[in-house]
Amino acid sequence: MGKLSGRSALVSGGASGIGKAIAQLFLEEDAAVVISDINAGLLEETVKELSELGSASGVAGDVRLMADAERMVSETVSRNGAIDVLVCNAGIPSVAPIELLTEDEWDAVLATNVKGMFTLVKNAVPHMIAQGGGKIVTLGSEMGVVAVPESPAYNASKGAVIMFTKSIAVDLIRHNIRVNSLCPGITRTPLLQSEVDNSMDPERTAAEQASWAPILRVAEPREIAQGALFLASDDSSFAVGSCLFLDGGFTAR
User: What is the DSSP letter of 59?
Assistant: First the structure.
């Protein structure tokens, strides 16, 4: 029996990268998993692949839209009878100094990374209250507490995620809903790998990525997914409003 046996989970942004690794690990731990993503084609491929592990299904949509978030949550409840775990993973990066950062990019990053969590949580919480509890895992970042140069929009969005998490955690624990944030460091996602593949000097770029944190390597998505499993399971029973940093020592330094 897995650590999430009999549980129903919704993982946003789950078609690739960390979200896909979380969905896969949850399935391996016997959860029924609904994966949402804005990329419908990639979502279909991912669901087909992960369905070999267990009860996996997909809902395409945009977490920035309240109606889409409501549909993601309602379809999770309809298909699996409950929403025991919500993982708010959907997000987009931003690398641009303030003098080059456009209003459109700022709006897109904050709408996806912050509002996209608000829409999902707002729709999931009434179901969790009615069923007697649940777990919510938000995806923060090391960059939510340590400012990285030329990333004001992303830094701001992840700082907001951490405080959003703490705020709702203290409100919702009275309903037996535990809310915590998973804060990854540099991780080998498809986006990060594309930076290597498309660079003028892939070997140098890979070495620069590896030197980011004291551990001197990047994380694999599954390593981050293990943190999500901990926060989503009963193993983390006393964690409320916590930030779990899996960053290879970046914030310690």
Answer: E
What is the bridge-based pairing of β-strands 32-37 and 56-60?
Answer: parallel
Length of the chain: 253
Name the pTM for this structure.
0.97
Q: Are 204 and 195 in contact (CB under 8 A)?
A: no
Q: How many CB atoms lie within 10 A of CB 221?
A: 21
Catalytic residue among 118, 154, 164, 230: 154
Which amino acid is residue 251, in one-letter code?
T
pLDDT tens per residue across span 77-94: 999 999 999 999 999 999
Is 123 annotated in the active site? no
DSSP-based three-state secondary structure for 137: strand
For residues 15 and 179, give the distance between their C-alpha atoms in angstroms, rounded to a whole number: 23
Distance CA 213, CA 50 (A): 31
**Domains with residue ranges and CATH for the chain:** 8-187+220-246 (3.40.50.720)
Which structure tokens are listed for 101? 């950062």
Token code pair at residue 146: 């340590």
Task: For 158-213, write each residue's pLDDT tens digit.
Answer: 999 999 999 999 999 999 999 999 999 999 998 888 888 998 999 999 999 999 99
Q: Cα 206 to chain center, whole Å?
A: 24
